[in-house]
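Predict the structure of Taste receptor type 2.
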Amino acid sequence: MLKLYIIAHLIFSVIQFLVGVLANGFIVVVNGTDLIRRRKMVPFDLLLCCLATFRIGLQMVMIFINLAVLSLIEFSPVPENITIFMYVHASEVWLATWLSVFYCAKIANIANPLFFWLKLRISKLVPWLICGTLTYSFLTSVFHRNHAWIISQISWLGFFSQNATTQIEDISALQFALLLIEFILPLFIFLISALLLIFSLGRHTQQMRSTEMGTRNPGMSVYISALLSILSFLILYLSQYMMAALGFSEIFKIKNSITLFCILLFGSYPSVHSVILILGNPKLKQNAKKFFLYSKCCQ
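Done. Here is the predicted structure for Taste receptor type 2.
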């Protein structure tokens, strides 16, 4: 008989998968429709569309992993499977990082020549950042294919067997250092951009509150909404990194409720943040309302 926490994990992982695919699919469809109708796509929508596409792929990988963890399907951590996961995950992380940089460049007000240069050119840089991300993620995934496979074997075998042992001597210190740098670099860039944006929005909100009309200013709610959105983005992004770091460590040696919860938390980020993006984007939010109204009319 299946344990209660395993049944709960299965239900939540399916809900997580459906929410992620539907939310990200909605983003792709809305922006794709605009591209067909207008025959062009603004840089922000292009970045959002690419991010949503890779998040759909990540959700498919995560539901596959969840089913394998629950022993409902067979899964072997062969190099090919690990390479696909690394490519999808690395692309998603970098695109989310560039989204944070885009927000920071467009919204934040910082008196710095380099930041001013970035603010003027970020829109033109978006296609290059996307192409560079996809190329870089592919090359690093192929380059670290065998080494990532060894590390994943340690985590995977340790997850199912308390006495499982795997040799890690094949990974040199240099290779491990490169893997670590590539893992931390997008987090470092994201933290800088997110914290700068939070600081700028917080300072501007405080200035608006200090004025006589601050509390009645309609722009106040916009800045507070943006601040909350970025804070939620930061929390979800950091939680994904924490779960990824724990997953590749030897902290979780055997399948239990805590381990399953951490796997579920890792996969919740691309689902929950995409819903937040829809609610915080006027165009996506308006199309979502139209979709629900149309669904009610059809019923």
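The chain has one domain: 1-160+170-207+218-292.
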